Amino acid sequence: MRENKNNIELLTERVRTGEMKASAIVEGAVKAAETLNKPLNAFLEIDRTRALVSAKEIDARVLSSNFAPVLAGVPIAIKDNICVQGMQTSCGSRILGNYHPPYNATVIERLLGAGAVVIGKTNCDEFAMGSSNENSAFGPVKNPWDVTRVPGGSSGGSAAAVAAGIVPVALGSDTGGSVRQPASLCGVFGLKPTYGRNSRYGLVAFASSLDQVGVFARNTLDVAQVLRVIAGRDLHDATTADVPVPDYAAELTGDIKGARIGLPQSLFGEGLDSEVRVAVEKAVDIYRELGAEIVDIELPNAQFSIAVYYIIATAEASSNLARFDGVRYGFRAENAPELRQMYKKTREEGFGAEVKRRIMLGTYVLSAGYYEAYYGKAQQVRSLIKEDFRRAFASCDAIITPTSPTPAFSLGEKVDNPLAMYLNDIYTVTANLAGIPGLNVPCGLSSQRLPIGFQLLGAYWSEPTLFKLAHAYEMVQPFTERPPVYA
Amino acid sequence: MPITKADVEKIAQLAHMEITAEELKIFAPQMADIVAYVEQLNELDTSNVQPALGGLTPEGEATDSSRADETSPSLGQKSALAEAPDPARGHFRVPKVL
Fold this sequence. Notes:
By secondary structure, chain A is an alpha/beta fold. Chain A is about 40% helix and about 10% strand. The relative contact order of chain A is 0.14.
């Protein structure tokens, strides 16, 4: 079976037993990344030399100590807004361009400590702002299922790299759905953990109260194993919570009898593609057959989530992106002999259209006279959305929804209409506003052979429940289809 | 509240961003659309609702994020300046301020 080739457990077992060298595994991944970058544009940097040096070190470590760490020799791709020392961090933006951070993000330190090998940095929407990857300053990523279509965004490069079989796992970031939505459009698993589950130190900030590093993989177990490595308290990020990290894999028993899954019927109406609706309803039926109890729930304020999100996210972005001023790092405009002029020219030439639009929206909603009407109001409605979930989780263990209202759309289709683009996030933004975890599970292909996914949402720290439910589904409905562009 | 070109120009000033005439023409109606969309929140009566502050979970709020006030190794001058567009004698150099 082809899928098993990249399963973390099989890979690390081969490295541990000496059946396969980490360097051979990493060489294969690097080669696939290089070859498939022409059709996909998934990577902004592939570091062959460094990846092979790291892999050889792991081989030597295994040989000398007879010990293999949990991710020994696992090749991994990292979204280009997460700092990896020695590699670039461009955030898909011209304003950072060839920036090389002098430190590792905490999640990277933990992955490296567990023996994972970073093979490259993946393409993304500029500063993670977008739902199609078309906002990258370095060209869009193409969907491996159909290269005329978007992979979703903003972590489209990481989603495409996993879907195309280049790497078994990749990291992305999820501020309003930027892991789950591309996971859905590319047919892979994608997790946004509970806010504070893992560290944001070294993740370039977009909207700090919403951002969370997330994981892509082709099965639940791989997501669970990587989360276990990266999760937990970090003194460099005061928003990480002191909550124990469980052994997620131990939860994957397959037995979900009696689990209560909430079904918000009101979210299955207008704007939802009929094939997506049918596929997700079929998944609900399968859960029922597996012994879960399906409970009707209401999320009365979910309809306001996009409006709340685009006030809060842009407000936080306008503040976070003030640091890009051409002084300490990145690009500085030429021919600007005066300081203020240098700031303005640098930001005009360095940022792309969507980032400018969001910085300006954020500046507007925070400006004198408007703060209460927009930002204050949005934070109040955010409280109502949190309360909706608190009430819903009193009667169910998880909630099922579509992840994206449609399968992958065509490149260029929505690029001139920002509001239509924002509505792609309708099912995903609520989790970021409430701080709860969400997981995309692939559940089939459309008539045009494009992946469809459903989303499981859970209460705070309920990742074990989400994994258990996803795994049980996967056991009876494995997603074994492969895209035409595949390693 | 409709957003005019003059508003967009003022916002760009506040955001320290130059915008071109071409961008102004595109951004003004797009921002007006988005602002009109988010104003649907006015339908909701929130007079008795406390605003959410940040994204923390109850467990996150309960986590003590203070630490002992002790120095620890940091980047250092050389490394901190390594990516600067115009470093000079151990400093970040900027164009004249006045």
